[in-house]
Design goal:
By secondary structure, this protein is α+β, with helices and mostly antiparallel strands. It has a domain of 39 residues. It has 2 helices and 4 strands; from the N terminus they run H-E-E-E-E-H. A two-stranded antiparallel sheet has the order 1-2. A two-stranded antiparallel ribbon has the order 3-4. The longest helix is centred in the N-terminal third of the chain and has 24 residues. The chain starts with a helix and ends with a helix. The chain binds zinc ion. Zinc ion binds next to loops.
Length: 80
């Protein structure tokens, strides 16, 4: 009688493990590729260089790649 119970326990355990393994296999093994962050590009008013909006200098509704070009633009406007 004990042997039948033992076989039943082993059988149930086997079915549980089999079900667990088949369930785990359904999960995607490869993670989806990371999405590239969409960064807005802006154009430097002086040299037309495209730079990230987050890295660009902003002044008078214009974007600049560097402080040098910002000063150049402001200086040119004042000179006129
Ligand atoms: Zn520039």
């Amino acid at each position: 009688m004990r042997l039948i119970i033992l076989v039943a326990i082993v059988f149930v355990a086997y079915m549980l493990i089999k079900g667990f393994l088949s369930g785990a296999r359904k999960k995607p093994s490869v993670a989806p590729p990371l999405h590239h962050r969409h960064e807005t590009m802006v154009r430097c008013e002086v040299c037309d260089l495209h730079i990230l909006k987050t890295e660009a200098l902003y002044s008078n509704d214009k974007y600049f790649c560097s402080n040098k070009h910002l000063k150049e633009y402001i200086g040119a406007r004042h000179a006129k």
